[in-house]
Amino acid sequence: MNSLPASFIVKDDVKRALKLDQPVVALESTVLTHGLPHPTNLALGRDMEAAVLADGATPATIAVLRGTIRIGLTDEELVEVAETSSMKISRRDYAAAIAKKASGGTTVAGTLFAADKVGIKVFATGGIGGVHKEGRFDVSTDLQALASTQMIVVCAGAKSILDLPSTLEMLETLGVPVLGYGTDEFPAFFSRSSGFKTSARVDSPQEVAEFARAHWEIGMSSAVLVCQPIAEKDEISREEVEPIEEQASLVAQEKGISGQALTPFLLQRVNELTNGKSMRANISFLLNNAHLAAQIAKAMTPTKIKIKAM
Predict the structure, then answer these.
(1) Which long-range contacts (CB under 8 A, 24 or more apart) does 137-142 make?
(2) CA distance 304 to 302
(3) Residue 159 is a catalytic residue
(4) Is 172 a known active-site residue?
(5) How many CB atoms lie within 10 A of CB 75?
(6) What's the rounded Cα separation, in Å, for the pair 171 and 169?
(7) Could you give the residue ranges of the DSSP H alpha helices within 62-189?
(8) Which of 16, 133, 198, 253 has a 20 to 30 A CA-CA distance from 169?
(9) Among the listed ranges 47-51, 55-59, 302-306, which one has the minimum average pLDDT value?
(10) Which residue is catalytic, options 11, 15, 121, 159?
(11) What is the value of pTM for the model shown?
C-alpha cells in the first residue's frame, strides 16, 4: 500500500490484510445512506460484511466520515453512516466533503477511486449506474470510473431503471469487459435476464481471476465487470417491473428530478409500487454479490497482480 493522503484512514484489519496479500473486498456505502431506510440499511451493512467474512475475506466498507475517507468501518462507524443524513459522494464530491468536514456514502465511482488508492482489487455492489432513460446526456460517472480503474466489480448488472442497451454500448465503447457469471445474458438488476448478451461468460471464481490477470497483464486499464443474476426465488420478472419503472420515470420527469437525486428517487418509487418487493430483491443480490466477491478475492490471492508501467 503506497503512501496515502492524510484524508485517508484505513481500518487496522484491512491494512493488515493488504500488507499480507490476504483477500479484501471493498463495499460501497450509498446503499446505506441513500438506498435503504433505517434500520434496514444498518442490518444490510452488517450482513454484507458478515457475508464477506464467511467466505474468507476481509470486508472494507468505504465511506466519508467528518471529512476523512474511511477504508473499512468499525461497527460504531457503520451505525453513524446508517443513521446520519449525508452526502452522496462520487469522484467529484470528495474534495467538497473533505473541505467541509462532511460525511457521506460513496457511489460505485467513488468507491472505485478509494479502493484503488489502497490497492484493493475486488469490489461488491448491487448494480452499476449508466445511461438514464430520462436524458441521454445524464450518464453516470460509474462508466468512466470503470473504464479507468483496474478492479473486479461484482454486480447484478446495471440498475434496471436505466437505458440498458445504451449502457452496454457505452461499456463496449469504453473497453470494459462485461462477464456473465454462470450466464451468457446480461442480468437486469431485479430480473435474471434482459435480452442482451454479455461479452463473455465465466463459471467460477478461478475463471474470473484468470480473466482479470490476462486483461491487466497485457496493459488494459479498465475494470472487469462480473454480473451475477439475482437468485430465482427473489427475482421480479421484466414483465412485472418494467411498467412500474416507466411509471416512476414519468413521475420523476413531471417533478423535474435529475442528477444525483434521480436514481434514489426512482428506486424508492419502484419500491413503493412493488410494496417492498424490490427492496427484498435488492438485499438478496447484494448479499449474493458479497459472497461471490469474497470467493473471487480468495482466487486472486495466490498470484499477486503487479502491472508494470508502460
Answers:
(1) 138/258, 138/259, 138/262, 139/170, 140/108, 140/109, 141/90, 141/91, 141/92, 141/107, 141/109, 142/107, 142/108, 142/109, 142/112
(2) 6
(3) yes
(4) no
(5) 11
(6) 5
(7) 75-83, 94-100, 108-118, 141-148, 164-173
(8) 253
(9) 302-306
(10) 159
(11) 0.92
